[in-house]
Specification:
Keywords: Repeat, TPR repeat. InterPro entries: AIP/AIPL1/TTC9, PPIase_dom_sf, TPR-like_helical_dom_sf, TPR_rpt. This is AH receptor-interacting protein. This protein has two domains: 158 residues, Chitinase A, domain 3 (Roll); 158 residues, Serine Threonine Protein Phosphatase 5, Tetratricopeptide repeat, CATH 1.25.40. By secondary structure, the protein is an alpha+beta fold. Helices cover 57% and strands 14% of the residues. Helix 7 packs antiparallel against helix 8 and helix 9 packs across helix 11.
Length: 327
């Protein structure tokens, strides 16, 4: 550690930052930019920007200690021989890039978990990292790497909304009903984007928990059941937001698991009309009537409106066809 501290003290300060050095407790979230410069006989190239979470299997101790000595807004740099960091940096950079990939729905949370589970920390001969610049860097190693860090923000654990991959199992389980409640509150306030985000995060947590269980065991089944109201609520938000294909995908999952869900068939009919799957919409309305005859009047009104739209579309298409034939 004394070697690291001496190296950190020797860093070149490009911008001093402001305030005191923050108190970096376990669970602190830091956001920083880093730029990596490969030096080949005094020539420089390659750079990238990413975020990190403190105390999360940090594979480059130098960076952790370096950040702990930085003020917010500080920019500083260090240059290291490739032989001291070449076996670690490509893996470190790859893991940051993977974790920082954007994801918009709960399936990508599952993909992220699979990437994490399959991650290997050992070097292999002619290993490919999945990024052309990293593969090239390993195949054609530089003499040195220059690292430039800029510390942007520091947030204590109680100030942040934890990402799923930072939660332990108990935190995951506790967060599902909280997220569902928050989603419902956003929906009631007509904040549909915010509601959808809460439902997606809750679904992502359930997917993570299900990965740990044996499919179709009791615990797995209980988790799977918790997904159904979340999927239904998410689909309703997506209908309102005109995200019809996403809504169809999520409603299909509900119907597959619960073929007597009247609300799901009704919502799917709406989504099918929006993407002009007319026959599918008619079948969904028929299923609604089959499951709940008390909704006959409502379904009849919807079917009348649907047939009106079909006739209007047919008339419009006939007019377009005539125009082409008699030009």
């Amino acid at each position: 550690m004394s070697v690291l501290n001496a190296l950190i003290r020797s860093r070149k300060i490009l911008a001093a930052g402001h305030g005191n050095v923050p108190d970096y407790q376990d669970g602190t979230k830091v956001t920083f930019h880093f730029k990596t410069v490969a030096i080949f006989d005094s020539k420089e190239d390659k750079n990238s920007d990413h975020d990190d979470k403190m105390n999360r299997n940090f594979k480059f101790p130098l960076w952790e200690e370096w950040i702990k000595n930085m003020r917010i807004g500080e920019q500083s740099e260090l240059t290291l021989d490739w032989k001291f960091c070449g076996d670690v940096y490509p893996l470190l950079s790859k893991s940051y890039r993977n974790f920082c990939r954007p994801h918009s729905d709960y399936e990508s949370e599952k993909s992220r978990a699979e990437r994490t589970a399959n991650h290997c920390c050992g070097m292999q001969t002619k290993r490919k990292y999945g990024y052309k610049d990293l593969d090239h860097l390993v195949e054609h190693p530089p003499s040195k790497l220059k690292f430039i860090l800029e510390l942007l923000t520091v947030e204590k654990e109680d100030q942040i909304d934890k990402e799923v991959w930072l939660m332990n199992e108990n935190e995951m389980k506790d967060n599902v009903p909280i997220l569902r409640k928050e989603g419902n509150e956003f929906y009631s306030a007509k904040k549909y984007n915010e509601a959808a985000m809460k439902y997606r995060k809750a679904l992502g947590i359930l997917e993570q928990l299900m990965i740990r269980e044996k499919p179709n065991d009791e615990d797995w089944i209980q988790l799977d059941r918790q997904k159904m109201p979340l999927l239904s609520n998410l689909a309703q938000c997506e209908l309102i937001l005109h995200e019809y294909y996403q809504a169809l995908e999520h409603i299909d999952e509900v119907v597959k698991k619960d073929p007597t869900n009247v609300k799901a068939y009704f919502r799917r009919a709406k989504a099918n009309i929006a993407v002009w799957n007319i026959e599918e919409a008619r079948r969904d309305y028929a299923k609604v009537l089959e499951l709940d005859s008390s909704l006959g009047k409502l379904v009849q009104e919807q079917l009348i409106e649907l047939e009106k739209k079909v006739k209007e579309e047919d008339s419009k298409n006939i007019g377009l066809l005539k125009g082409k034939l008699f030009k």
